[in-house]
Amino acid sequence: MANKKNTRNAHGSGTIRQRPDGRWEARCTVGTDPSTGKAIRKSVYGSGQQEVRKKMNAITAAIDNGDYKEPSKLTISEWLDIWIEEYSLSLKPLTVKSYKTQIETHIKPTLGRVKLSALAPHHIQKFYNKLNADYSPKTIKNIHGVLHKGLQQAVILGYIRVNPAEGCKLPKVVKTQIMPMDKTIIPAFLEAIKGHQFENIFIVDLFTGLRQSEIIGLTWDCIDFDAGTIYIYRQYQRLIGSYQWATLKNGKTRLIKPAKLVMDTLKAEKIKQTENRLRAGSAWQNPENFVFTNELGEYVKHPTLLKHYKKVVTGIGYPELRFHDLRHSFAVVSLQAGDDIKTVQENLGHHSASFTMDTYAHVTDAMRKESSERMDTLIQSL
User: What is the pLDDT of residues 100-137, one digit of tens each?
Assistant: First the structure.
């Protein structure tokens, strides 16, 4: 039976009572139901009278300040589904696909049933600590990025007051050492691809540094043979079961003026494609006007290109080389040839020159040392 003696009004904003089970309950009015006109009452619970009074006073203070929000009844799983479906319009399709994978594979199994309003930093920290046993720091950072973004949208909408992922500690990400082709590997690679069906695409990529989806999506309208330039403004991305056009990684289009070898290679590809089209006749299919196609005009698929590339680099004794290392190789060769950081950044489409410098710090360090040695030699001669 309720303790009537301890039932009282809390500063005119609610009541406090002790329940039959010994716990304390405070009830206060938090608003009015617009459909019925009836008061909306909220209860908070605690082990003591002082505890529930503090909770009730915090609610009434928030109401007086006009910033009280009824805690969301959504679970983390329910909210992330809403977020990814309704608030991801500005994201690229490949990014949405990646976010969904992180949510379904990692976040939902552990945190999915937790109420959005009840999620605390220590829940998330414990989740990250558990992941640390099986996943790399970079993977955990990516998972954190998705969860943090989703929770931040909930903050913006007023579903939660603060982002509980904000103060969590992540394992330190160790920067992966890039593995570009050096001046001994490049000649061996070029020799190995002579006569290969993808020789031209390999050459163009090695000496332009295009991303894989950029070079696969290269179309003839991007090539200006008179000016000797290539315009990069989109990429052809591989999603589940289909390919589709997407904007560039940093949303920045770029115009590059590559070496004469690249333009000559593209001219050779143009002649080759014309011959293939004549042989194919009505079977020719290239409505998008792709630069690199097979004998019937079909675009080159990512797995096909990667398979042939891995076979080539394995054949010359470097199976660890990735297709993306062609891009790194172009950057390193450009720097060693004397191109300034800003030019290399613009050719690669990096968002900033500082990012380029950080990525290829080992190359720039070596160049600074060589510059210092050249200056010493000059000083000695003087």
Answer: 999 999 999 999 999 998 999 999 999 999 998 888 89
pLDDT at 71: 58
Q: Among residues of the chain, what percentage have pLDDT more than 90?
A: 55
Residue with tokens 């994201």: 91
Other Cβ atoms within 10 Å of 359 Cβ, number: 18
- Could you tell me the two tokens for 372? 């210092």
Q: How far apart are CA 280 and CA 284, in angstroms?
A: 5
Q: Which CATH number fits domain 76-156: 1.20.1420.30, 2.60.260.20, 3.40.50.720, 1.10.150.130?
A: 1.10.150.130
Q: Is 99 exposed, middle or buried (0-12, 13-18, 19+ CB in 10 A)?
A: buried
Q: Which CATH class is domain 185-369?
A: mainly alpha
Q: Over the range 257-283, which residues count as b (16 or more CB within 10 Å of their CB) and which as e?
A: ebeeebbebbeebeebbeebbeeeeee
CA-to-CA dists, residue 59 to 19, 56, 164, angstroms: 21, 5, 20
Q: Is the pLDDT of residue 8 over 50?
A: no
Query: Which amino acid type is present at position 198?
Result: F
Ranges of each domain in the chain: 4-65, 76-156, 185-369
CA gap 5, 21 in Å, rounded: 16
Instruction: With 0.90 as the threshold, say if the pTM is over it.
Output: no
- Strand, coil or helix: what is 369? helix
> Residue 327 is which amino acid?
R
C-alpha distance from residue 74 to each of 148, 236, 354 (Å): 17, 37, 42
Is the torsion defined by CA of 299, 302, 307, 311 positive or negative?
positive
Whether 201 and 292 have beta carbons less than 8 Å apart is answered as yes
